[in-house]
Write a structure and sequence with these properties.
Length: 171
Amino acid sequence: MSDVVVNEIETYLPALRRYAWALMRNRYDADDLVHDCVARALDKLHTRREDADMRAWLFTIMHNLFISQHRRRKARPETELLDDTHDHAARSEPSQEDRLHWRDMLRALERLPEEQRTVVLLVSVEDLSYAETASVLGVPIGTVMSRLARGRERLRQFTDSDVRPQLRRVK
């Protein structure tokens, strides 16, 4: 295993951690998922095609691990609402309005069905292409585009419906 490969994997750790946190909704479980993902990637590095995108490959491993863990945990669900305690939100000191907007967006994201939330996170937050997202999730590109469109529309509806009642009360 070369230092170049290890360095490349290290560059994707923040993105993997964000995605794991959004999937698991618990910092400790997310850290475990990232650890398992990196361990599996290092163990299976010899199976990776040379021309394969490392980032997409890592997200595929993480997604598959998540699905496996999710199936095992179905009998004992343990969820935690997304909130503004994630490291990404703590990097700079947002204004109170920014915090409220962030909180509302995370709550709306939490309300999305899992398949839509996953696609929205991979495309909009992690900046994977539709093809990469389709590869990670093991679905056709058309499915990615459909889930993304429905997810974004539902996010708009959730955030609009959350804002409108507040505006009416102010008048």
